[in-house]
Amino acid sequence: MRQFTSSDFIVRAARLLLAANVAALVGCGVQVEDETGSARESIAPGDTLRYAVLMQGNAAGHEAIWTEADGSHRFHFEFNDRGRGPDLDAAVTVDASGTPVAVEIEGVNYLKVPVEERYSLVEGHAEWSAPGETGEADVDGPALYLAMNGTPGMNALAFRALLAAPGGSLPLLPAGEARIVEAERRVFETGGGTLAATLYELHGIAFAPTYAWLGDDGRFVGTRTGWVDIVREGFEDALEEMAEIQQSRESEWLAGLAATLPERPESGFAITGATLFDPSSLTTRPGMTVVVEGDRIAAVGPDGEVDIPADARTIDAGGRTLLPGLHDMHVHLSPVDGILHIAAGVTSVRDLANNTDQLLNLRGRIEEGTAIGPRVTMAGFMDGPGPFAGPTKVLVDEEEEARDWIRKYADMGYEQIKIYSSIDPELVPAIADETHKQGLRLSGHIPAHMTAEGAVRAGFDEIQHANMLFLNFLGDTLDTRTPVRFTEVARKGAELDPAADSVQRFIDLLVERDIVVDPTVMIFEGMFTGRPGQVTPGLAAVAERLPPTVRRGLTAGGLPVPEGMEARYRASHRRMLDLVAELHRRGVRIVPGTDAMAGFALHRELELYAEAGIPPAEVLRIATLGSAEVLGRQEELGTIEVGKLADLVLVDGDPTSSLAALRRTWLVVKGGALYDPARLYEAIGVAPGLQARE
Prior knowledge:
This protein is α+β, with helices and mostly antiparallel strands. It is 28% helix and 29% strand.
C-alpha cells in the first residue's frame, strides 16, 4: 500500500498526499463516496474541469477546478482512503507570468485535522501560514510556494510557471528549488477521443523524479503512480500506456544509478579490523576479518589468522561494528525506496501489499542489477469489497474466489498472504486453510467484528500492527474498518495492563501457536504523539538531512487530539511499548516492520524496542537472525558465517550500547556488492550521515 505512503500512518499518509499533490491537476465525475460511503454531489459550478482519482484501479475521489469571473482559480479536492483522506477547498491568484501570488486553503487533511493555510507575495515580500508553520521571506524575482495542504490541481499552475521560467527552474518557498524537464510527447487514442500530451519530470520535490502528463494547452492530463492514479475524465484507458512510458523513463534513471553506485571487486574483498556482532550469542568480537568471494562469505576469523587472497581488495573497518544486513518486515516498496533501504543497512525486506505488476517488475530489476534495492519477500494482499476496502484489485467475498487468488499468488512466487479489515470473518478459516495448503504464511489486520484471539484460532500465523492487539480487549463491536481502530486505542490504550490475567491468557495463546507480531510502533508514535509544526517524532533525528519539501511534509502532525486528551494519547503509546516488551519477555516472536519511510524508519522502530526495555543486542537479533528465521532463510541470512550470503552493514559506533549507531552506516554489502551510503544518499538529495569513504 503505498506508501505512501504507505497504509497506516503519518509518513505514508504524507507520501500519499505528496504523490497526489506533485502530480498536478485531478478532477472528478459527478459523484463521489464520502467517508461514510454515501454519495454526494460535487460542489463545483457547471463549467468545470473534471478528473478522476483511482487507488489500485478503484474510484477513490475527485478534484473539480474552475475559474471565477475575477480570474482566480478555484479547486475542490477530496478522496477516501479507508475513512481517511483530505477534503479541501482552495483559491489561487496568479500574476502576469502565471506564478501564484495568493493562496487560500480550508478544509481537513488526510487524518481529518482541520487546516487553514494562507500565502501571499506582494512587492517581493512573501508571507505564509499553515497549521504548525508560519514564515516570511523577501524574494528577488519569481518563486514558488508549495502549499502544505495543497490540492493536486493547484500544482498544475506551478508546472506552467516552471515551463515558462528560464531553464525550467524556480526557487521554492520556504526552501529548495524545483526544475521541470520534458521527457516524451505522445498522442493517446481512447474512448474519450484523441489527446496529445507530453510527459514531464519534476525534480527537487521528492527523493526521485515525479512524473506528470500535460496537454498541448498546458493543462494536466494524468499520471500513473501505481498507487494513486490521476487522469482526465474520459481518458482512463490511457493510464496503462502512460504507465509503460513512465516506467521506462524511471527504469533508465534507476539503471544509471545501479551502474555507477555499487562496487563489485572482481577478485573479492576482505574487511579487516572489524568488531563483529553475532546475533546467535548476542556478543561482539573485536579484531575480526571477513572475506567475501562472489556473493558469499568465504572466511571469518581473527585478524592475521585468515588467509586473504593476494588479489582481493582490503577494507580497514577501523574497529567499526560489522552486523548482518538488517530486515524491515513491513514495507510497501517503491523504486527509490530500494536506495533508501540499502543506504540504511536494510538488505532484506518483506513487502506486505503493493501493485503486483510493478512489484514483480521492480524485484526483477533489483535481482538483475538494473536497480538498487534489498532482497524482497512478497505477501499477496486481499480485502473484502466495501467503502473501506484497502487499495487492492483483489477484493473477495466468496470462499472459492479467495482460494483462487491465494493459488494465483503462490504461482507468482508470493510467500505469504495478508488480509485486511474488510474481509468477512467467516472467510478467514477457509483463507487460512488454502494459504497453508499452498505452503504460505497468513497474516494481516484483524477483520472488523473479529478479535485477534478469534483470528489466531482461525489460522493466523502473524498479526500486523500493535493496535490490533489492543483492540482484542475492546470487543468485536467496533467497526475497525474505519479510523476508529486508531482513535479508540489512542483513547483507551493507556488503561491496558500487560500483567492483567486477560492479557496474559491471550499471550499464552500467542506463545502456544507460535504467533509472530509485527508491531510497527514507530507509526503509532507519530500518530499518537505527533503535533502540527513538529517533525513526526520517529524521524526528528534525520529530518534536517532530508530534501526541504520532504521535511515539511513531516510536520503535519498526528491524529486530531480531543481537548484534554494529549497526555492520554502519549500514555497509550507508552503502554504499547510496554506490551511489546511483555510479548518479548514471554517469548512471542517479534519482527521489526515499519510501514513508513524506507530505511530511516527502521532505525527508529528498533530504538523504540530498546526504549520498551528490550536490550539493544536482543533488538539487533530481532532485526537480523530473528527475521531471517521467520522468513525461513536462516541458512543463508541473519549471521556472519562462512557460506552465507554476503549481506553486511558496517556502522560507526557500538549499536549494542546505543542503537543510534545504526544511523551512521559507513559501508553496506548486499550479495557481495559494496555500497557507500554517503554516495547513495547524495544521489537522491539526502545529506549523508557520514562522509563518503575515500
